Amino acid sequence: MNHPQIICIGEILFDCLADQLGKELKEVKSWTAYPGGAPANVACGLVKLGIPSAFIGCIGGDQAGKQLVEILENIDVDVRGIQHHPTAPTRQVYVTRSQQGERKFAGFGQIKTDEFADTKLDHQKLELSLFAQAKYLVMGTLALAYSQSQQAIFKAIKLAKKYQLKIFIDVNWRPVFWENIETAKPLILQVLELADFIKCSQEEAHWLFKTEDAKKIAEKFPKVKGVLVTLGKKGCHYYLGKNKGTVAGFSVKVIDTTGAGDSFVAGFLSQCCCYEEEILNNAKMAKQAIIYSNAVGALTTIKPGAIAAQPSKETVKQWLERSKTIN
Q: Is residue 257 part of a domain?
């Protein structure tokens, strides 16, 4: 296996999706578990797009944890960085869905959010060899909600700086994960100061920055090279290098939006690995990278689950040849 070009760090879990659409939590009669967790989704999406990737996170010593590792191994994600906690369980999150497939996080069953294995990621056990040859470190912000995993995130950022990896941060705001919501915004902003690339949804942009203008967001962070603000099915605002624009989304029959943003991230990072600085220096390349990212995200919504629905490099290529963006 090739040495990973991209390291994804954070949570891996099972998304338990409601089988009945349009129902509230108490009304749901049955659930189907799909592997997920944003950083794990990105790692899998990248491998499917031809980019060798690794995942760093912590799972329980339970059957759910074993299943998740097997899924990553079968996809060919590098799992050397996965830690195993002897007592904490692997996280499951319950997700209700609207009639249109839009998801809503509905909690963690009977277990407190800070008792899951992903919160126990140990900074002293980070797999240093992964950082030596990688190009990017990818992270969300959920691990910042817990003191131990927060420490591991800051250690990983330190290692990324040492080995000159570019840092890509997806805001991925999920209030249900945070015990103390008041601490979230200042912590997230602190970490974004260290980013080379920032990705957020339209809602997250307004929550954090009171604007969805990607250039205005970039101006708040002197070190940032690019900002992506995703608009769901409407596409994406972007500011890459000095190139600013909005690319419309693709019209597809949506089954489930779970993991679509993570697939968008995987699509974008795959283009960064292929074209590197051209995306920042060339306006046409910047736009093409976003079109590609939108396509990967859209294709993930036409099947249920996150990882299971991700397209291959060949699928994306063929689909783009057939499709046109919505004007």
A: yes
